[in-house]
């Protein structure tokens, strides 16, 4: 039996600490690898989320990310710019993957995601990637 293909994931969240913690637990024993996190409260200001910083991260990583996840505390008003950066990246590199904005799916919820949000994320990723 061949090993499951790995799916590199980039996350955007309000806090780096929560995003890293969620990635470590939700993606444990799955084919998904969180390879980068951008936040806008804990990292040094010049390294925090911005469309330009997200584009650099997406385009610099190897293997190329196949999913971008925005946490459930990311406000709806940021979804269009996140989606635009992802779409440009995916088009440029012919990536078959997905942008998943959790607040679009489950509504805006501050703090770490409850179990039902994590379950919905995994259901959505399985739907997209088949694993």
Shape: globular
The biggest beta sheet, please? 4 strands, parallel
Query: Per DSSP, what share of the residues sits in E-state strands of 2 or more residues?
Result: 15-25%
Class by alpha and beta content = alpha/beta
Q: List how many beta strands DSSP finds.
A: 4
Helix count equals 5
Low-confidence stretches: none
Using the CA coordinates, give the radius of gyration.
14 Å
Q: Roughly what is the average pLDDT, rounded to an integer?
A: 91
* Cα distance spanning the termini: 15 Å
Helicity level: 40-55%
Give the SSE string. Answer: EHEHEHEHH
Strand order of the largest sheet: 2-1-3-4
What tags apply to this protein structure?
4-stranded parallel beta sheet, 131 residues, alpha/beta, 43% helix, single chain
3D structure, described in words:
The two termini are 15 Å apart. Helix 3 links the parallel strand 3 (67-70) and strand 4 (98-101). Helix 2 (51-60) runs parallel beside helix 3. It contains five helices and four strands. The model has no long low-confidence stretch (mean pLDDT 91). It has a domain at 10-98. The protein has helices spanning 16-26, 51-60, 79-93, 102-106, 115-129, and strands at 7-12, 32-38, 67-70, 98-101. It has a four-stranded parallel beta sheet, sandwiched between helices.
